[in-house]
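Attaching the record inline, Q. Sequence:
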Amino acid sequence: MGRGVGGGWVIVSLEVMLMDDGLTVLHLLARRTPSTDKGAVAAAIEAAEADDCQVITAAMLGHKADICFMALCADWRTLRRFQSALQRAGLDVGDSYVSVTEVSEYAKGMPEEMLRGRLHPVIPPEGLNAFCFYPMSKKREAHANWFATPYDRRQEMMMEHGKSGRTFAGQVAQVISGSTGLDDFEWGVTLFAKSPDVIKKVVYTMRFDEGSALYGEFGAFYVGYLDYVDNIL
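Structure, as predicted:
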């Protein structure tokens, strides 16, 4: 138990900040600086993994970032320690995204094993080393308001969307995480693919689905490939 600086409020527990179910997904986009210590970065990853986090790293293409850390963990305090350790290691964390694993309301009837896989995904999927992350939302406009559309109609569009995605089975895997109330968009989408052109093909193909064509809004795209810290930095 702790007391605030002003003495007027109390924190009941300082030990954990756990999810009730599922995992928090933290994407940290960082640049190397002259003071970056690769050994300290590696130690930060090892410490997070020792605290039951999954951590992967991807080399980024383009000016937005040099490296992306994707960490999955049930405890927010562990993720915050990881973020702080990377900053102390000399990395400039210029962008981030916070979301949580979830089971979609449109996933009714799916096998229990598949539902558990969505709440507790294991990353990275084997053999899929091309990497892409982007956030997205659904529109709330007069002519296209996803949240004012009846459930049955939304489910129909999501079934179409899923059918398009399944045509890329074996070539791409995804982690869809919810971020309503947690970050600037409503979902985070992480794609793992067998090659960079597959990422382009799957995103382009699914843009024609009605649920995306009429209702989709997208944030910045971060692309690269999975690699070890020593090779990236």
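DSSP finds seven helices and 13 strands in the chain. Helices lie at 38-50, 76-88, 112-119, 151-166, 196-207, 210-213, 229-232.

More tomorrow.
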